[in-house]
Design goal:
- The chain is mainly beta and 284 residues long.
- 7% of the residues lie in helices and 46% in strands.
- The strands form four sheets. The protein has an eight-stranded antiparallel sheet with strand order 8-9-10-11-20-16-15-14.
- Strand 6 and strand 7 form a beta hairpin.
Length: 284
């Protein structure tokens, strides 16, 4: 059997079944802030639960890490929110460049990436992704990213919220889910509905569509302190906010680490089922 090319897409498998495709070097225009992403991601039964460059937001790229403001550079894609001006087209887009795989297996990988803008590397990322079977109808995607400031100056991560747009603290781990005729339901252990869960902190958060459920959980104390960014009515998407009320500083040589575990399940889970699967996924 011929080994895959070093930078070829990774196909994640659970119990022998393909459940995700990770693209390392996408050919995308600069305005979309090119970056590696997972798409499609599917349930064990084969239902796709991600979207790539949908018509409503062409810069939404499946599952990955996207940040709208790293010292004024846009690693999210699309327009930049400018204080007292609003969303503005700027020539400030960065790119996440795949460096190499330290590990590459059918059930996961460890990757090094460089976050580059204006010809300068700002951040070095170590990304660890693993796929694990939970039940016959559910599996878990374990996604850790570590961002190290490789410059000699302080860096900070911001969001539209920290730049003056309330409620728009997106930036960090982000999952663009599949859009269906009806908006998905969203709930936590103690609340439900976009208005009730967006911007709150919760150990886990579930997004349930037509025949599928995603359950997101922060798997470290630092990650659990980040509020959830949630959209269901405009489009289906869930993220964990690195910069909600204030910017996240990363001094030279220091590292910010976050870990999100996502349960990918066939069917519509209730609160009890979602909580039990999350506990199993995080403890593995």
């Amino acid at each position: 059997m011929t080994a895959p090319a070093p930078d070829a897409p990774v196909v994640l498998r659970v119990a022998g079944r393909p459940v995700g495709r990770y693209v390392t070097r996408p050919e995308l225009p600069a305005r979309l802030s090119p970056r590696p992403y997972l798409h499609p991601v599917t349930t064990l039964a084969g239902t796709a639960v991600t979207e790539l460059s949908p018509a409503d937001h062409s810069h939404h790229l499946g599952v990955g890490v996207a940040v709208p403001d790293v010292e004024g550079h846009n690693f999210w894609g699309g327009r930049t929110y400018v204080r007292d001006q609003g969303p503005t087209e700027l020539d400030n887009h960065g790119a996440q460049r795949h460096g190499s795989f330290q590990l590459r297996d059918p059930d996961g990988f460890v990757e090094e990436l460089r976050w580059v803008a204006s010809g300068t590397e700002l951040l070095r990322e170590r990304r660890t992704v693993a796929a694990t079977e939970l039940t016959d109808t559910a599996w878990a995607l374990d996604f850790t990213f570590s961002l190290t400031n490789v410059t000699s100056a302080p860096l900070s991560i911001g969001s539209p919220a920290t730049n003056g747009r309330p409620g728009a603290a997106y930036g960090g781990f982000f999952w663009r889910a599949r859009k269906e005729d009806a908006a998905p339901d969203v709930f936590t252990a103690g609340a439900e509905g976009e208005a009730s869960v967006h911007g709150t902190r919760a150990d886990w958060l579930a997004l349930a569509g037509a025949g599928w459920t995603l359950v997101f959980a922060g798997a470290t104390d630092a990650t659990r302190r980040d509020p959830w960014f949630v959209r269901t009515a405009e489009y289906p998407g869930v993220g964990s906010s690195l910069a909600s009320a204030e910017r996240l500083p990363i001094p030279p040589g220091e590292t910010a680490v976050r870990r999100i575990v996502t349960v990918v399940a066939d069917g519509r889970l209730g609160r009890g089922e979602a909580a039990a699967l999350v506990r199993k996924a995080v403890s593995q």
